[in-house]
Amino acid sequence: MKLESKLSKVSNRIKSSIIRELLKDASLPGIISFGGGVPDPKTFPREKLAEISSEIINKEYAMTLQYGTTEGDPLLKKEYMKLMEKYYGVDWLHEDNMVFTVGSQQALYLIGMTFLDEQSWMSASKPIYLGAASAFIQRGPNFINVPLTEDGMDLDYLEKNLEELKQKGEIENFKFAYVISNFHNPAGVSMSLDKRRKLIQLAEKYDFYIVEDDPYGALRFEGDPIPSIYSMAPERTVLLNTFSKVLSPGLRIGAVMGPKDVIRRITMVKQAADLCSSPLTHRLAARYMEKYDLVEEIQPTIKLYAKKKDWMMEALEETFSDIEGIEWVNPEGGLFTWLTLPEGIDTMDMFPLAKENKVLYIPGEAFYIGEPERNKMRMSFCLPPKEDIFEGIKRLRKTIETYCEEKGIELKIKTKK
Amino acid sequence: MKLESKLSKVSNRIKSSIIRELLKDASLPGIISFGGGVPDPKTFPREKLAEISSEIINKEYAMTLQYGTTEGDPLLKKEYMKLMEKYYGVDWLHEDNMVFTVGSQQALYLIGMTFLDEQSWMSASKPIYLGAASAFIQRGPNFINVPLTEDGMDLDYLEKNLEELKQKGEIENFKFAYVISNFHNPAGVSMSLDKRRKLIQLAEKYDFYIVEDDPYGALRFEGDPIPSIYSMAPERTVLLNTFSKVLSPGLRIGAVMGPKDVIRRITMVKQAADLCSSPLTHRLAARYMEKYDLVEEIQPTIKLYAKKKDWMMEALEETFSDIEGIEWVNPEGGLFTWLTLPEGIDTMDMFPLAKENKVLYIPGEAFYIGEPERNKMRMSFCLPPKEDIFEGIKRLRKTIETYCEEKGIELKIKTKK
Prior knowledge:
The structure is a homodimer.
Chain A: H1 9-13, H2 18-22, E1 32-33, H3 46-59, H4 61-64, H5 74-88, E2 98-101, H6 103-115, E3 121-126, H7 130-137, E4 142-149, E5 152-153, H8 155-167, E6 174-180, H9 193-206, E7 209-213, H10 229-232, E8 237-242, E9 254-257, H11 260-274, H12 279-291, H13 294-297, H14 299-320, E10 327-328, E11 336-340, H15 347-356, E12 359-360, E13 362-363, E14 376-380, H16 386-407
Parallel strand pairs in A: 1-12, 3-4, 3-6, 6-7, 7-8
Antiparallel strand pairs in A: 2-9, 4-5, 8-9, 10-11, 11-14, 13-14
Helix pairs in contact in A: 3-12, 5-12, 6-7, 6-11, 8-9, 14-16
């Protein structure tokens, strides 16, 4: 039978992930991949988790192997509240302020379901995190795509657009601003304290929610931590954290914090979506947090990523500083840097050549709603070892040179001072 | 701020689960609950799972603690295909015919997302499984609610309604028939082989899919297994199985099988919904299936449930056979029986009284889209021990008597033969 004639509108709207297609060959021998944003498996505390898992299945089987509640393990909530208080000064959390999701991806999806219709408006940065885009696009809302600068979104641009919506009488349909506050994926930048405050003012003025996605905040290499938007405006912010970058992505646990009424609605949507998450993975994380300090335990990993980031900056500097029009972000944390290549280079078009040269990245166009900036690329430094980082960047130089030659694009070499 | 003004249509459509509310007190001391349909935790193979979990975290951490693919663990697919071939004669499965979901609930939800819009039609039994109703209702489709008889849905009723849709030129909007083929939740009945064949004929005639939900099929106590609809019409059936009833609900694994193009679409929706499920729980189930025969291992549990079912039938017979107008289903497997009480008794209205008498059930009205039959109730026999089953049914009799007295409903006592 013809499936197409039976599909829903939503289903017709969904595209398969570009990244998934692009990274199919990421694990082939000889390939150096800056593509995926996945943690280094060697950083996972496997022995500790193995021991706990065996214990909680043997002794707590009536909970860990049974159905759980939709909102998640109460013990995990308790431990997470302690962490939020100890490290982030958030001491007002009640268990009704929290729900655990299947990674942050499910949180984004449920938030889309909770707030968005085809008549709705929301804002997101340009570029936008791919997973967020795919979750929100399903709902078919209208987007204000706000350009990203060094210290976060261009809030003047956002305000101008909000004001226009207000003039058109559509401002009630503006549901939320979606923000990655620290070490943006893909762009590497963080939102400054000033801009966080200004965004809260805008949210108050135009009455909308802020969805603060913060998967990487704990992975800070340098510079001072900036208070979360949530900590400054808990009554209108939904904060998304995840265990994927600080413990293990395989547990599939995202932590969502926000106003009780919002959390309740998100929980109700989750109940219809999957009834509950695995109590086994919840309790595994909870007992781990009980025994070990999550933030202390992750320090060696942060040091490792910080070194890798430095190597990548060093390699980029060594390899590309002589070419005009190549820029990259030096992130203070997280997993990504964001490269801008000279105008005319299309990183998607160049991708097959890079693959031939055995180096992978994510072409910028994966991260846009609407018209992409084609001369950008996302590079993750967290997985490859030191020598691969330097070698990979060399291969990238070769790729760019060959591509430009083939396309007749002139690479301008800087005159030495 | 006012959340209500910011909610999506979908979110406004979602009600919190009645069962969840009703069963809040299910674990209080002294309460005998026939409410939840959850397996007995003592039946979970905890020692085996504990051992495997520790092994797969220690040795396979690069897979089990990392992100996985959206469609799920390839090893679990391999093992599941073997099981389908060995026990169900389904020997044509390719890995592209399968995707694993977060329990069957996520499968139902993703199927709703994949096929249904507000213009769509689907059919479901009346009564309908609550979780399916909540997943499908989110999409706002039109329902044909097909009355359930002893041997499954009334297919004449379905055909009549399909023909009407055809006459109205709306038959292309009819997406699928949703069926629980074995030991229906809540009604306990199974669809006969004749009706399965007839349903397939209707699907061919009117060109729609069949969504065959079979969480309980493996839990057969008596009678001969009936071939699945999927095994007879794999090109237009999507089959939903789950590990929740045969291994552990806490793993949150549902297995969806169907035509490759449908599976691909469901997988794409899942990717936006949660990226991937936990590879840890997938690999845990896979290694378990590799070491042990899932169907053999579950036999003691089936024997246990069969005994409990017999006790419940015995208790019902002893306690209610003298009252006219009380009927119950004697299921050949699964977890539930379905009681019909004399007209005039409203099982939801009676619920607080039952709670006072320390016995819980699920009022029938939880299982209807549209006008419910209020004199029905679902009773699960799988959790309480023998003495509680007998005592619980006695309390139910007392509850019914008191309720009828209070409401002035006359219970007709049969004259002894």
